[in-house]
Every structure is written in structure tokens, then in C-alpha cells.
Amino acid sequence: LSHVPGPWLSRFTSLTLKYHEFRGRRREYIHALHRWYGPAVRLAPNEASFTSLEAVKEVYAAGGSGYDKTEYYSLFCQFGIRTMFSTLNKEEHRRRKRILAERYTMTNVMREPLLEGIQERARAFTAKCANSVGSVDIYALLHCYALDCVTHFLFGDGLDSLCLPANYEIMAEMTYHQSLQKNLLHYYLPRIAPYLPFCQPRHAPLANEYVIGAMKKKVDQEASSKTQQHESYSLIDRLLSSMEGMPAAAECKDHMAAGIDTTGDALCFAIWQLSKEKHSHVQTKLKEELREHYRSDQAGDLRSLDRLPYLDAVIKETLRLTPPIPMSLPRYAPGGKGKSNVVIDGYAIPAGTIVSSQAYSVHRLNQDVFPESDRFTPDRWLGDALDQNRLFFAFGQGSRGCTGRNLATMEMKILLAEVYLRFSTINENEDQMDMELDDQIISARPRGQMCKVVFT
Length: 456
Ligand code: HEM
Hints:
The protein is an alpha+beta fold. The protein folds into 2 domains: about 1-75 and about 325-395, no CATH class; about 85-170 and about 205-295 and about 400-455, CATH 1.10.630.10. The protein is about 45% helix and about 10% strand. The strands form 4 sheets. The protein has a 5-stranded mixed beta sheet, sandwiched between helices. Strands 4-12-9 form a 3-stranded antiparallel beta sheet. A two-stranded antiparallel sheet has the order 6-7. Helix 12 packs parallel to helix 17. The longest helix has 27 residues, at about 250-275. Protoporphyrin IX containing FE (HEM) binds near residues 84, 255, 263 and 403. One of its GO terms (molecular function) is monooxygenase activity. Keywords: Heme, Iron, Metal-binding, Signal. Its cofactor is heme.
């Protein structure tokens, strides 16, 4: 890798990279290296990072699913089992995706009972905001919304953490934790970490109990044939009806976890941006579009939300500037004995090298496609935004990209529509809120885990 530019020390040791990882600063460190050295950077003796479109296509979409995931994804096992997300084996991934993908298609996501359930939850959110005195901590409420929506999709009758305190506890358990360093220790010291008293893995007993209970209920219902398979939109019904064995509880828990912080954080960042005084013109433009084209009380109109260009642009711009998964998605460069090295962005890369891109840098450093890339400018997504869309990496790319993209997008569209059709929002005190991205394993969240907004 000596021909890939990077700090001199990275030729000999990965310690600098690990130091920044443990401090929760990996993303910023890599970003700074890219600013200094360019679109290809050596991070460690056996690791490199890239930001160009060519590299993203090669690493994540070559042959459809891109290069193999690294063992880093073992950190995402559920109940000790590999899921579609954490499986390293391509064949196994393909098999599982074949079973699950149908539930994540736009056709299934657009089914009325599913959309209406999401709208009901968006209205529960706006009711909370309407009834509040002063400001509302939207961070907590949006994570509740995301949890309620994703469980509605997974199990048919989902949680109601927006209203029920016992369900709220599940959201809190999944959201408010500090487990980055513990997870990293388990990854780097798998033999020692389990014996360290301060390093016990994060438990989520309430969430586990809920998932297993919801599954049992479904199985019982099926046994007494109370459900009608053909009308179902839920993932669990698909899993239970599939004749090919799948670890259904682990899979459901994984999709539940994948759908809370990502969608919750994205919505939180979107409302925070729209509520800044300097972005009041963006809020006004969004309201105008909604007033003109969206009748929230008319059945069937929810689908039309997917055709509103400005709403779409606001969401894409939020995900570009503050992607909920902004960090490296590590893969192994393929090859091996007797095979030639792969070429990424003009650099020959030896087999087995860990290669990756991080959305945070891909979205900010390609200034020719995203000029003034630090600014929140939804208009950049209007019209023919072919180049912008090709570089959009918030949901990953290739067949291992986000399966939940359609669902997440509709959840975000419905919530923003319900909010901005009825309310204006301003941030309570912009200077006091800590909305800096705080790195987790591959995701990041607002550092303060709180966002106070006034609804009028
Ligand atoms: C704004 C919201 C979301 C964002 C930004 C997001 C982002 C991502 C990204 C970047 C990946 C690829 C990770 C990698 O390659 O290592 C991914 C994978 C995945 N996401 Fe999402 N996600 C979101 C919402 C959701 C939701 C709501 C669900 C499910 C209910 C979901 C389920 C999944 C699954 C199952 C995978 C693994 C796909 C595979 O390996 O085939 N995501 N997501």
C-alpha cells in the first residue's frame, strides 16, 4: 500500500487510527486526512479509505454486492446469531435477501394499512407537540416515533412508545447508551474483553423480551389461523411463512434496531435544520408545497407525498449533510494467490486490505458535485440531480445497501408533512444545543441527545 498517500506512521501501525476510534473521533480523523491527502488515503498498514464515485462503485457495487464485509460486522450479531446485515457470507446474504426483500419494496411499503399506521403515529407525535407548553425535546419523541413505526411494519401491531411509559422504556434502552468503547474492546480483544468487569456487552432485555413475545403471539395466532397471510404487509408474516429456515427473532430484532436511531436521528436533524432562523425560507417553501399538494385528510393521499420534489430534497439534503451512518463501512479487497490486485481509484490494492468509504466525507469532499458542501441547501436536489444521486451514500450502495430505505423515506415524509402542514418550528436555543455528530460503531447521533424545538 506504500503508493497510497497518508501519514508516515500509518505505514507501520494502526495505533493512531485506533486512538481516534476509542475517542469517538475516527470519522473526523479520516475526514481531516482526506482533506490533506486527497480522495485516497492510507489509514493503517492494512487499511485505506476512498471518497471518489469510482471507488464507491467499485467497493460497494462491483458485481452487484461489492466486496465482502469484514469481521467488524460481528459486533452486530443479535442473540449471538448473524443476521442478513451481519452475515459475511455472500451466498447466505443472497438467500436471506431473496426472502425478505419483497416486504421492503415500494409496492409493499405503499400499502394503505401500513401507511395509515405510520400516519397515525405521526399524528400522535404532532399531538404531543401541540399539547406541550414551551419547547419539546424532539430527539426523544422522534426515536419513539421511529420505534413505533418500525414495530408496526415488523409485527403488524406495533408499540406505542409515544403514549405508553412501558413502551417508552424500550426506546430509552435502545437509544440512550454509551457502548462504543466496550464494543471496540470486544472487537479488538475478543478473548480478553468478556472477562473484564467494566466491559460487559450492552444488554437490551426489554427489547429482547418484546421481540420474542411479539413473535410468540404471531405463531399462536397462526396456529389458530386468525391472520390472513395474503393481506399482510409485515416482515414477521413473511418470515414465518417462508419454508426456508431463518433465525426470525434475530432478524426482527436487527431490523428493529436498524430502524430506530437511523430514522429518528435523520428526522431530528431535518427539523433542527428547518427550525434554524437562517433556514426559515426553506421551511416556508416546504409549507407552500405541502399546502398546495397534500390533503392529509383524504384517503390515498399519503402516496402522493412520494411525488413532492421539495419534501424529497429536504430529506436528501439532511441525509447528505448529517447521514445517520456517516462512518466507514469496511470491506476486504478481493483477490488472493495467483490473482491480480484490484484497482481502486487508480491504486492497485493488495488482496485482504480493508477498504472503505464514509458517507460524511463522500458527501462533503466532492465539491464539484456538491458545491458549498457544508451548507444546508435542499435546492441542489431539484431538477436533474443525476450526479448528486450517484454520489448519495447515506443508505450505502449496491445490494448490501439499506434494505429499509423505502420504509424510512416514507416514515420521514409522512412525519414532516404532518408537522409542516400544521406548525411552524424554531429551535429553542441554537447555541446551547449540542447537535455535533457523535460517532458510535458505524452510526453517529447528536452529541447532546436532546433537541428542543418550539412548535407554533
Ligand atoms: C434514515 C434511515 C436509514 C439510514 C440512513 C440507513 C442506512 C443504512 C446503511 C448505510 C446501510 C448499509 C450498511 C453497510 O453497508 O454496512 C444499511 C443497511 C441496512 N438497513 Fe438501513 N438505514 C435506515 C433505515 C433503516 C430501516 C428503517 C430499516 C428497517 C426497518 C433498515 C434496515 C437495514 C438493513 C436490514 C440493512 C442491511 C442490508 C443488507 O445487508 O442487505 N434501515 N442501512
